[in-house]
Amino acid sequence: MRAISTVLGTKVLGTGLAASLLLALSAPAGAQTRIPEQAVDTATQLRETALASDLGYRITESLTTEVGPRLAGSEADARAVEWAKAKFEALGYDKVWLEPVTFPKWVRRSESGQVVGRHAQPLTLTALGGSPGGTVEAEVVRFADLAALQAAPAGSLAGKIAFIDYRMERARDGSGYGPGSRVRSGGPSAAIRAGAAGYLMRSAGTDSHRNPHTGITRFDDGLEPIPAAALSVPDADQLTRLLALGKPVTVRMALDCGWDGEATSHNVIGEITGSSRPQEVVLIGGHLDSWDLGTGAVDDGAGVGLTMAAGKLIGDLPTAPARTIRVVAFANEEQGLWGGKAYAEKYAEEVRRHQIAAESDFGAGRIYAISTGAPEYAQDAVKQIAEVLAPLGIEYAGDAGGPGPDISPFAAQGLAWARLAQDGSDYFDLHHTPDDTFDKIDPAALAQNVAAYAVFAYLAASAEGDFGSGVQADGATDGK
Amino acid sequence: MRAISTVLGTKVLGTGLAASLLLALSAPAGAQTRIPEQAVDTATQLRETALASDLGYRITESLTTEVGPRLAGSEADARAVEWAKAKFEALGYDKVWLEPVTFPKWVRRSESGQVVGRHAQPLTLTALGGSPGGTVEAEVVRFADLAALQAAPAGSLAGKIAFIDYRMERARDGSGYGPGSRVRSGGPSAAIRAGAAGYLMRSAGTDSHRNPHTGITRFDDGLEPIPAAALSVPDADQLTRLLALGKPVTVRMALDCGWDGEATSHNVIGEITGSSRPQEVVLIGGHLDSWDLGTGAVDDGAGVGLTMAAGKLIGDLPTAPARTIRVVAFANEEQGLWGGKAYAEKYAEEVRRHQIAAESDFGAGRIYAISTGAPEYAQDAVKQIAEVLAPLGIEYAGDAGGPGPDISPFAAQGLAWARLAQDGSDYFDLHHTPDDTFDKIDPAALAQNVAAYAVFAYLAASAEGDFGSGVQADGATDGK
């Protein structure tokens, strides 16, 4: 296959170098990946067609309206799988199929919280995904951040509720979510180690509404899980004000939720078959599951809708690009990248077939940059793509960032990734909350995303030469 | 008393004229109400003191934090009464007392809604105040507005759920709330007349969050009440999209709420005693009760906090104004102006003692205008007040608008009113929702409100001459 022989040409240079250093390598003359001029012309037309289309918006509307919330493993998740298969078929994809993904099933039945005593009042909270059920009524002890709770001596919170009041920062690139989500993932285990009976956190979010942010948590091995929940931002403010009065504050949190056996959902896949190198695949996609509080519009109905639309618009061209466009609606991203892991496992031997992959899972804001993990010999081709994207307000950004969540397991096995970086300034106003609903999506911004993904996928699928998938540290390739 | 003799001077002019026409009358020379120069100087200082103070903000914080939501007749409402009495006392008011107010008690226990069938998903809704409990599972019939539902033939909605999808308009002066709130007050009876088993409405609100707007409704005499609820704005959008798919949509709404006997709460009153005419009263205030979903910060913790602060700052002056400043935290405004009606009834014979009244019950936005229902002979004095308010961005606005809700029953009996018009552009984003919380208040805007109320109350209490309270159509006066 052409792509393999191209990369094999780099072998003489690569022995013993770390894969990341490949970025600094120059391939021999003639091994440079490049995009044919005619493909650039077609992509330019495709971009304008996509900008004028509301297809991505309508697909996203259909999913979020007709299915609504679709917690992994739920009845609605199964409906979402049916919906995705039917939608790929209705859009005229050449091949459509399901791949099973099995995972532990978590269910939320009810949840409530309140301050008890002289300042009695309800608190708006939501169980963290993975929390056990249970009712805890106890004094609250506040910590400014995760490190403060981790420093609490063992036993010092015996019978109490630990509360981390960390306020997440707003940022275009979502960089505030790293520390914010670590409070969610690491807080409960730290609380248990200090003896706490329950765990509360200020939501990892940037809004100011009575809509708490859920999201998966975990418990370190050997610890007995405790009920763990997030307060809405105004409720965290309120609890902090009550604590500032200087007297003990008792909260009752009652969660009815927990793990409940296993469930099987599906990665749903649609393909536009390549015209000359159909075995080579450019992968785009989003994740089909959502949290249960909203209808999963920005997380990640938009990602599914816009990549489905991009593939469909490529399929509408008179001639398909050389390579196959594969659109994947991944199963159960939210609770641990289950769909992405299943995909990486299933295709472990076929990383070389996958030329490059990009997942949209950061909302529906405009894309402002493209970056890839591709090696130096492919960067001119990425720059060619960036030139076609430039009228959309998108800049070339080298190797900034990393792969989307569902392609990250496969990227760890050598898959080349691209990142179409979205403006996520308001993403964490909505993410994992009841407020993640279709009305929050700007149709013009979504069309810009469709245009960007269509251009990217079409040009990557038209490139002569590869983007580095399956290139080992020693310059060898794996997969077939 | 000076004020009476001043008004008696107008008697020769007024025979047979409607009270509203008094605005067009000129009092005889010497009967003009005016404000002494020294009072203007003091008020100018007071304005600056108030602007630099966070007292109103802190009082509002105290109420909304320590008491939280305070539905009329609830345990928390009783705590709010205790809080208000203690706060007036702590602020050093000269007199503090309670006046009982009895009303029917409405309680909300639980509520839920969902679409059932092939698009099964939860809907966020809240029972309207006054709704009976009950569970209805029925097909939804959508109406664009109240008139459309009112035009539905009797029996045409037998067993169905009527849904009014009217979208309220945003406006600085809140003028969109008239038609919006009529959907809430008039919709249920129209639904019953058409045979409906349940009633849903798009919330009377201007936000886009999953926070429904409650508020009182009523049922016309002779009709059997049905469960009545408001969907959040995004949920109304969602239901409308589902209906647009063209197949019947069935919703299950389950409300556990209803009337439950009577309750007695209290108007809580604090006074700063006037220095030379203590029997004459200038009244300012807000309402102490709130809906139960939020903590009643903009509706109407702010009104209580800012008027309490204004009175306190007047009380801190070396010399009190001539007249008494009375600050009233009214009971149960939300369910039918019960506190305002009780006040008007109790003081029906004393309207002449009440020189003028202003209630703050439109959030915590900046005040942009002052208007009154005072007669022409008092308008120069109002303009004098407006001059002191002008540096706050406040304009003189004649007789625009009308009295605040709790003073309107007394105004109907002849009480002169003032309106300090607030910018309510975002008020109906929050009003009657879970999102009405303290974090929504801008402390600088609240200080501006305190300054305006302090200046207004101080100068009205310092005026020589009256503002028209108790002046009859024939120019006579009533009360003592």
Description:
Chains A, B: It is found in: Endoplasmic reticulum; Golgi apparatus; Lysosome; Secreted. Chains A, B: Residues 1-31 form the signal peptide. Chains A, B: It comes from Novilysobacter luteus. Chains A, B: This is Carboxypeptidase Q. Chains A, B: Keywords: Aminopeptidase, Carboxypeptidase, Endoplasmic reticulum, Glycoprotein, Golgi apparatus, Hydrolase, Lysosome, Metal-binding, Metalloprotease, Protease, Secreted, Signal, Zinc, Zymogen. 2 copies of one chain form a homodimer. Chain A is α/β, with parallel strands linked by helices. Chain A has 2 domains: 2-101 and 264-462, Zn peptidases (Aminopeptidase, 3-Layer(aba) Sandwich), CATH 3.40.630.10; 110-261, Glucose Oxidase, domain 1. Helices cover 33% and strands 23% of the residues of chain A. Chain A contains 14 helices and 14 strands. Chain A has helices at residues 2-8, 11-14, 37-51, 55-67, 75-90, 146-150, 177-193, 233-244, 297-315, 338-346, 376-389, 408-411, 427-430, 443-462; strands spanning 95-116, 121-123, 125-127, 134-143, 161-164, 198-202, 228-231, 250-272, 277-287, 323-330, 354-359, 367-372, 395-396, 418-422. In chain A, strands 1, 2, 3, 4, 5, 6, 7, 8, 9, 10 and 11 form an 11-stranded mixed β-sheet that branches. In chain A, strands 13-12-14 form a 3-stranded mixed β-sheet, covered by helices on one side. In chain A, helix 3 crosses helix 11 (376-389) and helix 11 (376-389) packs antiparallel against helix 14. Chain A is elongated and about 75 Å long. The termini of chain A are close together. In chain A, 60% of the residues are buried. Residues 1-30 of chain A have low confidence and may be disordered. The A-B interface holds A 61, 65-69, 75-76, 79, 115, 118-122, 124, 208-211, 233-234, 237-238, 241-242, 245, 294-295, 433-435, 437-440 and B 61, 65-69, 75-76, 79, 115, 118-122, 124, 208-211, 233-234, 237-238, 241-242, 245, 294-295, 433-435, 437-440.
